[in-house]
Amino acid sequence: YTTVSFAKKNHALGPLVEDFTEQVVLDMNIKTEMNAVAEDLNKKLEDLLEKRCLLLEKKSKAWWWP
User: Fold this and answer.
1) Is the pTM of this model over 0.85?
2) Is the pLDDT of residue 1 over 60?
3) What is the pLDDT of residues 3-18, one digit of tens each?
4) In three state form, how does the secondary structure of 6-63 look?
5) Phi, psi at 10, each rounded to 5°
């Protein structure tokens, strides 16, 4: 017997195990989504920093070599 199959046979535990399993799956899905959002934000920040550096570089060249 696995815990889940045992619990399904036991009417008192069945719904609790199913609910717990759903919560775990939901939690994993939320964490996966949060990681994807964090990766996307990091990429956007890197792009913005790169653009900022290029802009500052252009400004400094324009300042020193008019």
Assistant:
1) no
2) no
3) 666 655 666 777 777 8
4) HHHHCCCCHHHHHHHHHHHHHHHHHHHHHHHHHHHHHHHHHHHHHHHHHHHHHHHHHH
5) -95, 110
- What is the rounded (10 degree) CA torsion for 60, 61, 62, 66? 130
47: left (phi over 0), alpha (psi -120 to 50) or beta: alpha
Instruction: Count the domains in the chain.
Output: 1
Residue 63, CA distances (Å) to 50, 55, 59 in order: 20, 12, 6
Question: Which run of H or E residues covers position 65?
Answer: none
Domain containing 24 equals: 3-64
